[in-house]
Amino acid sequence: MRLSESEIRERLKDLKGWTYAGGRLEKRYPFRGFTDALAFVNRVAEIAEALNHHPDVLLQYGAVTLMCLTHSENGVTAKDFDLAGRCDAAAG
Amino acid sequence: MRLSESEIRERLKDLKGWTYAGGRLEKRYPFRGFTDALAFVNRVAEIAEALNHHPDVLLQYGAVTLMCLTHSENGVTAKDFDLAGRCDAAAG
Q1: How far is Cα A88 from Cα A92, in angstroms, rounded to an integer?
Q2: Mutate to test the interface with B, among A44, A58, A69 (most CBs of B within 10 A)
Q3: Which of A7, A31, B33, B68 could form a disulfide with A36 if both were Cys (CB 3.0 to 4.6 A apart)?
Q4: Do B59 and A59 touch (CB under 8 A)?
């Protein structure tokens, strides 16, 4: 179920570095280089497959940006917060 | 060395599906699902490491978009066309 903006703002308080803009949750994770960034992308992919919920992933030389929304609900749901929290844990 | 726009337009004729916009080369590769898309990202990463030249990579559920430019030259160079061609070959 799609969350209201106030519910999203409330839940964001439990996450570090995530923002809500453009109808999605987004966070940029900096990395020292490409290898570390790529390794994180692969960890995120494992999480996404396990949850059957997939973020958009932008891989750059020294950073990975994750964008989470639930297409079927056209908005942010509890699944996106679950995904975000698990990706944070995997970022180490 | 940064290529002129006319050089870029000329070289683009040898590539399929690549566009030049916003100062970079860009192509979207569709895939059937996440696993295929992720496998392509990892092949692109190997190519990028071998060339020591890294595109920005957007991984989505059913597509991968590559964006190539040479930051040190603030534009598109022959290295970007080399990278683009090799990624096309790896897309199968």
Answers
A1: 7
A2: A58
A3: A31
A4: yes
- Looking at residue B13, its pLDDT comes to 97
Average pLDDT, chain B: 97
**Which residues, including other chains, have CB under 8 Å from residue A15's CB and lie 6 or more apart?**
A27, A81, A84, A85, A88
Looking at the partner chain, which of B35, B38, B54 has a beta carbon nearest the beta carbon of A34?
B54
Predicted TM-score of the model (pTM) = 0.96
Contact B61 A54 (CB under 8 A): yes
* Cβ <8 Å between A49 and B61: no
Largest distance between two CA atoms of chain A: 38
The token duo for B23 is: 């100062």
How do B24-30 and B63-68 pair as beta strands?
antiparallel
pLDDT tens-digit readout, B23-32: 999 999 999 9
Q: Which pLDDT belongs to residue B92?
A: 75
Rounded CA-CA distance B33/B11 in Å is: 31
Quickly state the pLDDT bin for A92 (edges 50, 70, 90): confident
Answer yes or no: is the ipTM higher than 0.90: yes
Nearest Cα of chain A lies from the Cα of B59 at a distance, in angstroms, of: 5
| Contact between residue B52 and residue B45 where contact means Cβ atoms under 8 Å apart | no
